[in-house]
Design brief:
111 residues; alpha+beta; Hypothetical Protein Aq_1857, Chain: A; 3-stranded mixed beta sheet; globular
Length: 111
Amino acid sequence: MSEMPSVDITPAAAARVTAIAARQGKPAILRLAVDGGGCAGFQYRFGLADAADADDAITERDGATLIVDPMSLDLLAGSAVDYVESLGGAAFRVTNPNAASGCGCGSSFSV
């Protein structure tokens, strides 16, 4: 039985998910999905979830859970979700080894 490819979540991202979820009174579950569109062909979509679906890939760290649906996982395998604060603002960022190119906004990619 082969192990499912996974998507990692950094300690900084896990801490941010936990903080946002606590403020909203929700479970610390972040859903990462890939949608068609964006300036490079695909775009990342983040949102808090109430629970994982049966076929989701699940990664846990420091009390936070990252879930990814099977369709998105094909494009995200081996990626890592980080939380970055910079002069341009603070945001979740995906480091995706499958992306052939990205865009200036950092939220869109192509394969």
